Amino acid sequence: MVSPLDGAQGAAAERRGGMADLTLRGQYEEALRLVQAGKPHEAAAICRRILQTFPKYIGAYRVLGQAALAIGNDQQAMDLFRRVLSADPENLSAYIGLATIYERQGRSEEARQSLERAFELSPGDQELRHRLRQSYAQRDLPIGRLKMTRAALARTYLRGQLYAKAIQELRELVAADPRRLDLRVALAEALWHDKQYEDAAVVCQGILAELPNCLKANLILGQVWLNTDQDGWARAYLQKAQSLDPDNAVAQAIFGSRSVLPPRTARLPLRAEDVPELALPYLVDDEEGVVESIVIEGQLGQVTEGDEETREPRGDARPSAPSEESPLEEGEPGDASLGRSPQVQELVVQTSADEASLELSLTDLQREYVQEHPDDYLAHLDLARLLCKDGILDQALAEYSFLVQEDYTTLNEVIHDLDLLNRRHPDLPGLGELLRAAREKASLRSPSR
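The structure corresponding to this sequence follows.
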C-alpha cells in the first residue's frame, strides 16, 4: 500500500511530467526549501520519510530542528539541534538555531556563546555578524567590526590549507579548553591533512569517547585504521559514518580521491516499506532503528527510536567500540562545546568602518588578525605571502618592509621571498632597495633578546 506522502509525491511528479526525485540529496533539498518557504509541516513529513530509510542522516535532523523552530516548539528544536551537534560539532545551522531559541527564552549569555561559535565557523557571514553585534549591544559594548578570535583564525588557516599553522593554534586552544569538541574535530582534520595520522587517530578516539556518533571522527579514525591491525574497528567506524552521511559527501570533502568510501547516490524507496540495506561493499550488515517524527496539532511529535542490535566488528584489537545507542545521541553536546576558558580569547567589538558587503576572503581575515595582533611577526609574513598570491604586490612589499624594520626572526624567510619576487618582477618599484636593506640587516649581528 502506498502511503499518502508517496501518493502526493507521485502526483506532483506526474504534474511535472517526470518521476519524483527520490535521491536522498533531492529529498533533503526539497525539505530544506519547504522549511525556508514557511511550510514546516510539509518539510517534517519529508524528513520523517528520510529517517525511515536512513535513521541517522544528520541533514534530516537539521531540517526537523528548523521546522520545530518555525512551528514554535522550542524544546524539541533544541533537542534536535543538540542531536545534530552530537554528530557534527561544527554545524553552523545548529548553533544559529540554538542562539534563536536562547534569545526567545531571554538567555542572552547562552545566545551570545552560540553566535560566537557560529561566527568562528563563518566569519564572513554578514547577517551573522549583524546578529552578533546586536548581542554585544545588549551588553552595552560599542558596535563595530568584530574582532577575530584565535579559533576563527585557526579555521581560516585550515580552510586555506595552512595546516601547520592551524594545528599550532588548535593544539593551544584545545589544551586551554578540552571541552571545545568542535575545535578537537578541526584539529583531527588538520592533523590528517598534515599526514600526522597517529596523532589524528588519538584525537578522534578522545572525541568518540564523548560523542560516539561524531561523523568526522568516525571517518578519520576509520580511514587511518583501515587495513591495519585495527581493521575490524575501522570498518565499524566507516559503517557508522556512512549511516550518518549515506552519500559519503563529507568523506569526499575531507579525503577527496583518497577516500576509502566512494561517492554514492543514496535513494529512498518508492514505497515506505521498501527500505534498502545499508550498502557498503566490504562491511557487515548493521541493524538500524527507525526514527519517526509526526506532526500533531501544529507540534512536531517526539523523536523515538526502535531497539538496535549491537554487533562487534571484526578484529582482535579492542579500543573503544562505536556506540549503537540512539540514532543520534541525546544530551547536551551543544552546551558542552560552548564552554570557555579564561585563556581562550573572547570576542570583542571595536569601532571601525562599515563591514564589506561580500564575504571576507582568507587574505581579508588574515589582514584583520594582523591589525589586531601587530606584534605577531609570523602572521605578518603569512599575510605578505597571501598578498603575493593574490597579486597585490604593493601591499605585500609594505608587509615585508615592516618585517625588515621590526623583526630579526623572520629575516631569512623575508629575504628568500623577496629574492623570488625580484626574479619574477625585477622592475617592481622599491623591491630592489628593500631586498638590499634586508640583506644588509642580515649581515649585522642580531640583537640579543
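Residues 374-443 form one domain.
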